[in-house]
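From the shared-data thread, chain only:
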Amino acid sequence: MYLQSNMIYTITANTEGWELFVNSLLPMITGAIEYTIPLTLISFVLGLLLALLTAMMRISKSKLLNAPAVVYVSAIRGTPLLVQLFIIFYGLPTIGLTIDPFPSAIIAFTLNVGAYASEIIRASILSVPKGQWEAAMTIGMSRTTALRRIVLPQAARVSVPPLSNSFISLVKDTSLASLILVTELFRKAQEIAARTYDFLLLYVEAALIYWLICFILSLVQTVIERRLDRYVAK
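Structure, as tokens:
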């Protein structure tokens, strides 16, 4: 009798767990669509623009441009992303500057992406042979035109793999936004877990969704890299 009742309890628990898994799937996916993915895309695009500007400042021979870029990159790379988020969302209100959760997350992630991606872009630009610059100058191109039409297209191909990895990492980093009240994917999992107390199931489910998103992005990255490789002389 004990064994029989124990089996019935196990089946019931498993059934309830499966129902919870299915019922929580839509809220988590909604959180991903409404916040995780937009937060990733907006931060990455703005971060790339900031990174390009910073990289140009880093390779500049002017100390007036180079020094601020060096300080910015060093400060962002030398501090945890979580601390940066807390400074913007919880720290700035103490000096009278209050920013909503979603914009705060965008600012923090943009600054973070800008610093790391700037080093990728800078290294990619420097990897282009100096002969490319010299050849452009000999046909009358200015340094700006040579950079835009000759150097940057070559540097872009080199920078695609590391930038793609940064983009995928950013998808996972957005889970930190849950700590400043952004109701993204992981925050949804936390809210449901707080009501049901089934933390393991819900956190594993959230991890599976993150993994699926990153897996799809990895496939896209592979396709892009193969297309770019077609233009490389073998």
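The radius of gyration is 23 Å.
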